[in-house]
Write a structure and sequence with these properties.
It is built from 4 helices and 3 strands; from the N terminus they run H-E-H-E-H-E-H. By secondary structure, it is mainly alpha-helical.
Length: about 120
Amino acid sequence: MQAIHSFTRRRVVQAMALGLAVAGSSALAQSWPARPISLIVPFAAGGTTDVLARALADKLSQSLGQPVVVESKPGAGATIGADFVAKARPDGYTLLMGAVHHTIASSVYKKLPYDFA
């Protein structure tokens, strides 16, 4: 009998957590974004990642109702752009267009100016 009671209590707690998450996300969705968003591409303009980022930015702009501006920050195996995003204000208005380079950068470079993990 105790197992059934515990199972029900767990379900109630899960339902409450889900409700709070949904309520919190809808409140966030109403206030964000309030200004343009920067999408940082750590590669040169005109490349495959840049083309994909521009297509994504267009769709995001339509969906969010705010401009999404693509900025190229190439160099150092994509670590310059990643470092720029890592040092940006943590307000959700500066995004990184990631690629496979970021997953191996910690193995290639002895010291990165950011922690990608």
